[in-house]
Amino acid sequence: MPLKSLVREISELSDYQVYGRVSGVLGMLVELSGLDRLLVIGSRCILIARDERKVPCEVIGFRHGHALLLPFGSLDGIGLGCKAVLAASEPSIHPSEAWLGRVINALGEPIDGKGPLPMGADPYKVRQSPPPAHGRNRVGGKIDLGVRAINTFLSCCQGQRMGIFAGSGVGKSVLLSMLARYTSLNVNVIGLIGERGREVQEWLEDDLGPEGLARSVVVVATSDEPPLMRRQAAYMTMALSEYFRDNGRDVLCLMDSVTRFAMSMREIGLSAGEPPASKGYTPSVFAELPQLLERAGPGVKTEGSITGLFTVLVEGDDHNEPIADAVRGILDGHIILERAIAERNRFPAINLLRSVSRTMPGCNTEPENELVTRGRQLLSTYENMAELIRIGAYNEGSDPVIDEAIAHYGALEAFLTQGKYEQSNLALGYEQLAAALGISWDQDVPEVTGFRDQEQNFDTANVGNE
User: Does the keyword Ion transport apply (predicted)?
Assistant: First the structure.
């Protein structure tokens, strides 16, 4: 099969090369003349530097009869008159199961020192349109993500897309590593977009670990790389997820972070002369976000699915800033990490009262919903009176509901606290939550079929009770 694929690629090569010349360079933007009638938005060119180094570029616009390009690498050595060769075909990759356990860059090249990547049989375009809405399967049953607070209060289904919203230093990366290690899904595709270069190896070795890496493909584009590389890393992450989904695998796609993808899109848009719309973000950013995020989800006529968990780095801890607001409207739920909770040393620092999973309560049984609702009520009651309780202004016995919330608050905080190397599961999570609330719980948690297999006229309240 790899030989057949190689023959197909050779047959697609052109008999001749077409090239133009660099007519201008300003910052990261390159103007190209001579190829403007052959190029379209998204076309690829290879610039030949003075020292014969090759710099891949992409067309992002046209101006005054010249094509505008942004590079995937450094423009050192590029000057007026340098040759630009038109790339032969649309970028694609040839993934295979052997890519699991590997670390690659945004162009699909290995960067882990483990040798070349085995080539799969079929090409996959890096940039794809989302599947048609009418042809998609429904979301599947609940999945075990290994984190108590999410499993119980924010249950996630196969094919669901959730956002993890937090400021810097609140624990996003550690939470992602826990999800990658402890999930019940058998394939992880992890995109580290705009990460600090120093932290990548530490995260791979200490947080993800050998066990997590063995069932993962990790795509890395660090913060020092050009904006096209950071954008391409997000597309590469989704393309690999689609490959495993189309092969019947249930994939956990983790992307850290969507904000840095949006920032790279902003840089690209501003370089092309696009006017800023909201806090410097160009209109194309908000048009591109759903194109990226909608690629996750259930498959079309396949058993596989992509469960997406995307982090959003909120600027200044403002959860209503433009990117956070746009992403929250696209996804199927949001997990809010709060700095005040992290400062009192409770990790993961999830604010359950501000977090939502849109597949709940439909994916739970009735006893599970009652248990979760009871826990939320007690947390809400305590948080409403928290200031008075802390300063000693509340007198015990004034309100039995508040007294009960105070009595159970310590146990609930202990339940929501989970160490980085501590694993939980669905059944154990409900047992521990019931114990924290002082409720008897001796039920077996059934396998919930989820929405995919329900009748079209299903009653949400009865899902999982059959």
Answer: yes
